[in-house]
Amino acid sequence: MAERLATLVIGSGFGGSVVAHRLTAAGERVTLLERGPWRDTQPMRRRGLPDRRPLPAGAGFCHHLLYRLSGPAGLRLPASNSGLFDIHYDPAMSLICSSGVGGGSHVYSAMNTRPARSDYWDGHADGVDAASMEPHYDWMLGVMGARAPATGEGVPGFTGDDLRDHPQLTAELDQPPLGFDFDGARFRDNSYFGSPTGEKRTLDDLLLAPALEQGLDLRAHQEVRGIATTGETPYRYRVQVHDHERKRMHYLLAERVVLAAGTLNTLKLLFASRAAGELGALPGLGLGFSGNGDQVALWWCHDEADLSAGTPTHGRLALRGAGDEPYITRFGFNGIDRMPLPEPLRRKLRHQAILVCMGEDGAHGRLDWHRGRLRVAYDPARNPVLGQINKTLKAIGQGTNTSVRFLRRRPFTVHPLGGARLASTPEEGVVDACGRIFGHDGLHVADAAALPAAPGRPPSMTISAWAAHVSDHLLTTGETP
Ligand SMILES: Cc1cc2nc3c(=O)[nH]c(=O)nc-3n(C[C@H](O)[C@H](O)[C@H](O)COP(=O)(O)OP(=O)(O)OC[C@H]3O[C@@H](n4cnc5c(N)ncnc54)[C@H](O)[C@@H]3O)c2cc1C
Question: Is residue 98 within 6 Å of ligand 1 at its C-beta?
Answer without folding.
Answer: yes
